[in-house]
Design goal:
By secondary structure, the protein is an alpha+beta fold. It is about 45% helix and about 30% strand.
Length: about 90
């Protein structure tokens, strides 16, 4: 589903204008990113949990030249779906 499709669907189901829904989604994205950066975890009922996972640096090898290089440490965001979300996805239509 494209972002514009989400905006249209939420607009129709809530009765709000597309512009308002778009602004709310943009603000929500900013708040979620700030919360993850600050606390490292974000839980949303019926949706799931977003967790910042730190992966330490390591050595890598270029398979063609056999050159060894360093892969720097990096943070990733993991999504762990809520049980309700998993059950709904596994329910036949």
């Amino acid at each position: 589903m494209a972002p514009q499709d989400i905006v249209n669907s939420l607009s129709e189901s809530s009765g709000l204008s597309r512009q308002t829904v778009s602004e709310v989604l943009n603000a929500l994205g900013a708040v979620l990113a700030d919360e993850l950066a600050e606390k490292g975890v974000l839980r949303l009922d019926q949706i799931g949990e977003f967790v910042v996972d730190h992966r330490s640096g390591r050595r890598g090898v270029n398979t063609e030249t056999k050159e060894i290089f360093v892969i720097p440490p990096q943070d990733y965001v993991l999504y762990l779906p809520a049980l309700e979300c998993v059950e709904r996805c596994n329910t036949p239509p």
